[in-house]
Design brief:
Layout lengths: L10 H12 L2 H12 L3 H6 L7 H15 L4 H5 L1 E4 L2 E4 L9 H20 L4 E6 L5 H9 L3 E7 L2 H11 L4 H4 L2 E5 L14 E6 L4 E2 L8 H6 L6 E3 L4 H13 E10 L5 H10 L3 E6 L5 E7 L1
Helix pairs in contact: 1-2, 1-4, 2-4, 6-7, 11-12
């Protein structure tokens, strides 16, 4: 090798260097797999293969972004949510385990409805963001048709990209609409939904400054903060539910644990029977209401 040439590192060396920079061994593995394009079994067989200059440069870029505080999900550009692998970026919230629980509750409610009336079901996901709730419903239940609503064009672009990843038989049962909550829906849908589900913004304005910097600096503010009380969007969704739900239809909404009493009151004032489901950590997390 001439004096002007530089040895290209192997993946073994890159893994070791990345682990030293990031500390977290799980993140290191995910990043190395992402940049190499190899799953773990193949990667282990290729550890002593020199990386290409392009791969070395790409890895350096990804590690620098992560060290700057950017969420791992944004750095990778995709993330797992239940049965899905979805694209995520700064236009939408990073999918969270709490929302996976919301989907579980929503599916359980749909199953209860289907047990009494085994026919096709109609659902709407208000404020769909990346689309993870709507797409999970369509992917996990063959009899469900889903409308996904969002007012933000960037979020709808992400949802559309994720919709394209669904199997054709699920994809054809999802409709994306632009607009603000129920205002996006055609009048002909009134009184027809078996399920209304939402993960709306529910933080109060004063809570924004208290968030982890990773959330505060990279997640969209409008997807998290509702207003002075944090209940502004939940109030709109709950108040409108009776008009859009069919008989026996269910409303399922993610909430902050501190909001459970206020949200139950909102639901009952709207003429709905309501309860709160606690998440796997034992925190009040989901409003379930019905006509």
């Amino acid at each position: 090798m001439s004096r002007n040439q530089t040895a290209v590192p192997t993946w073994r060396q890159l893994w070791r260097d990345t682990a030293g920079a990031l500390v977290d061994p799980v993140e290191t593995r995910w990043i190395i797999e992402e940049v190499s394009g190899l799953g773990l079994p193949a990667l282990l067989r290729e550890l002593d293969r020199p990386a290409t200059p392009a791969e070395v440069a790409r890895l350096a870029e990804v590690v620098a972004r992560r060290l700057s505080g950017e969420p791992l999900q944004h750095v990778l550009g995709h993330w797992g949510f239940r049965t899905l692998e979805v694209a995520v970026d700064s236009r939408v919230l990073v999918p969270r385990p709490e929302t996976e629980f919301v989907v579980e509750v929503a599916l359980s409610e749909l199953d209860r409805i289907a047990a009494k009336c085994p026919a096709s079901l109609f659902a709407v996901d208000l404020g769909t963001g990346s689309g993870v709730i709507a797409l999970s419903l369509a992917a996990e239940r063959d009899a469900v048709r889903v409308v996904a609503v969002d007012r933000d064009p960037g979020a709808l672009d992400v949802a559309l990209a994720n919709l394209s990843r669904l199997a054709p038989q699920a994809r054809e049962r999802v409709e994306l609409l632009a607009g603000d909550w129920y205002g996006a829906l055609p009048a002909s849908y009134a009184g027809r939904f078996d399920l209304i589900v939402a993960n709306p913004p529910y933080l109060a304005e004063h809570e924004w400054a208290l968030l982890d910097p990773v959330v505060r600096d990279f997640d969209p503010v409008a997807a998290l903060v509702a207003g002075p009380s944090g209940l502004e969007h939940i109030s709109t969704i709950v108040a409108g539910a009776p008009e859009w739900l069919g008989t026996g239809g269910r409303l399922v909404v993610e909430i902050a644990p501190s909001q459970n009493t206020a949200v139950l009151s909102l639901a009952r004032c709207a003429g709905l029977r309501a309860r709160i489901e606690v998440d796997l950590a034992g925190r009040p997390r989901v409003l379930v209401a019905s006509r």
